[in-house]
Amino acid sequence: MAVERTLSIIKPDAVAKNVIGQILARFEGAGLRVVAARMMQLSEAQAQAFYAVHKARPFFGDLVRFMISGPVMIQVLEGEGAIARNRELMGATDPKKADKGTIRADFADSIDANAVHGSDGEDTARNEISFFFSSLDVNGR
Ligand code: ATP
Ligand code: MG
């Protein structure tokens, strides 16, 4: 399997619960490396742009309001099959449906406050990484 990079966001609910370290440890434990990271509070315009693919969906307003409700921790994860591996670690969007032992099963409260974001494919990974990071900020080995 190819070495890939994917974008991961620890969302405001998980940052507020003080579990950044526990979530990063899940990535590291699964063989993914953090190769770029920044902590910030998104503006409304930034959250709308990041989730633009969902702008026609009924939950878009709630999603944007939630994503700007507090600081987020944003990282690029690198490793073998990183995009799918991160999605496996995250679990289903709705934590009630997430497999036992996944990040969302263990740390998320609802489909809105669902602890983490992860890119869902090669194109979104590339676009989402460049949304937050310059190539100079990404430290490959
Ligand atoms: P993310 O993109 O945040 O990693 P995801 O890829 O699992 O999550 P998407 O379908 O991309 O899920 O939806 C983006 C976000 O929008 C979800 O994380 C969730 O918070 C919210 N969302 C998705 N579907 C619904 C829904 N049916 N009702 C309410 N909120 C939803
Ligand atoms: Mg998504």
Give an account of the 3D structure.
With 141 residues, the protein is α+β, with helices and mostly antiparallel strands. The chain contains seven helices and four strands, in the order E-H-H-E-H-H-E-H-H-E-H. It has a four-stranded antiparallel beta sheet with strand order 2-3-1-4. The protein starts with a strand and ends in a 9-residue tail after the last helix. The protein binds adenosine-5'-triphosphate (ATP) and magnesium ion. The site of adenosine-5'-triphosphate (ATP) has 10 residues, from strand 4.
What does the secondary structure layout of this molecule look like, with pairings?
Blueprint: E1 3-10, H1 12-16, H2 20-29, E2 33-40, H3 44-50, H4 60-67, E3 72-80, H5 82-90, H6 103-107, E4 116-118, H7 122-132
Antiparallel strand pairs: 1-3, 1-4, 2-3
The protein binds adenosine-5'-triphosphate (ATP) and magnesium ion.
Adenosine-5'-triphosphate binds next to β4.
* Uncertain spans: none
Principal-axis shape equals: globular
Small molecules bound in the structure, each named once: adenosine-5'-triphosphate, magnesium ion
Coarse structural class? alpha+beta
Q: List the strand order in the largest sheet.
A: 2-3-1-4
Element-level helix/strand string: EHHEHHEHHEH
- How far apart the termini lie comes to 17 Å
Sheet with most strands: 4 strands, antiparallel
**Annotation, overall tally of beta strands:** 4
Radius of gyration (CA) equals: 14 Å
Level of helix content? 25-40%
